[in-house]
Structures are given as C-alpha cells and as structure tokens.
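idk why but the lab printer keeps eating my pages so im just putting this in chat instead. protein + magnesium ion:
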Amino acid sequence: MELSYKTDNEIATFELGQKLGQALVAGDFVALSGDLGAGKTAFAKGIAKGLEVEEPVTSPTFTIVQQYEGRLSLFHFDTYRLEECWDLEDIGYEDYFFGEGVCLVEWPEKVWPLLPGDFLHVTIEKCLAESPDCRLLRLVAKGDRYVKLLEELN
Ligand code: ADP
Ligand code: MG
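predcted complex ->
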C-alpha cells in the first residue's frame, strides 16, 4: 500500500510528519529518503512533534544517532556520513532498530541490508516542474503493520 501527498510549503511537510508521528507506536520504523534540501528535516521535526518531543530536533550532523524523549523514545539516525553500512554495528544499532522506541532513519539506502523486514518508507522529492516549493511525499508500507498505519492516516 502507498499514499502520496503534495505539499507546497515547509509547514505543510512538517504537519504531515506530525500526523504520522501521532499515529506511531512503540517499535515502529520509518525510513526517510530524499536529496539534500528535499525537506527531510522538516518532516522529521513534524514526527518528533507528533511524538510529543519538546526538545528541538536538529539534523544529526556529528552523530549517527540522536535520541529524543517524547511519549516514546525517538532515535533519529542520519547515516549520510557512514562509509559502510556495517559501521552501524559499532554503535549497537540492533538495540535501536529492534527496541521499544521509534526509529527514524535518514539515508536508509546507505544501510539497506540492515533494515528490518517491515517498515514505512517515506520518500520526498522536489516537483520543480510545478513550483520551487512543491514536494511529493510518498509513503510506502512494507509489511502489515505499516499497511494498517497508512489506513489509519488516510
Ligand atoms: P533536508 O533535510 O532534506 O536536506 P530540509 O528540511 O533541511 O531538507 O530543507 C528543506 C528546504 O526546502 C527548506 O529550506 C525549506 O524551507 C524548503 N522548502 C520549500 N518548500 C518545501 C516543502 N514543500 N516542504 C519542505 N521544505 C520545503
Ligand atoms: Mg536534513
């Protein structure tokens, strides 16, 4: 199952993330793809808001994973700087990926072999043909849990 949305400003992308964040439960996993400037951080901030995280969310520039506390723990990964996916093993990624918090992984392509079997894959693309601020967000469910999640969002 797949849902897609178009947004025409950063706030709309944030609000879509917030709506998703409100629907997330313990153990959920979201992979977030998109080029630099697509809007991943805006969407991630919305997810955090939806999880009732009070602390400001930044791009995890110098750390691979940043932890936030809301109604659930949020583990925000940015694997952009990893040389190899196996480098995630050094930080004990399994505790996060298969734990009771919510994982949000930016640049999931970098660590594809390590991703769980089921997850929600969000892809953000610029739709420049329409307007400079247009973004296409595609939410693709991998596995039954995420089909349910998308049905709930819809
Ligand atoms: P990323 O984390 O993917 O590199 P950011 O969220 O940091 O992207 O930045 C997205 C940039 O695009 C911001 O400058 C934002 O204002 C701008 N922007 C314009 N339109 C949108 C939109 N519809 N959704 C999200 N960001 C948008
Ligand atoms: Mg970013």
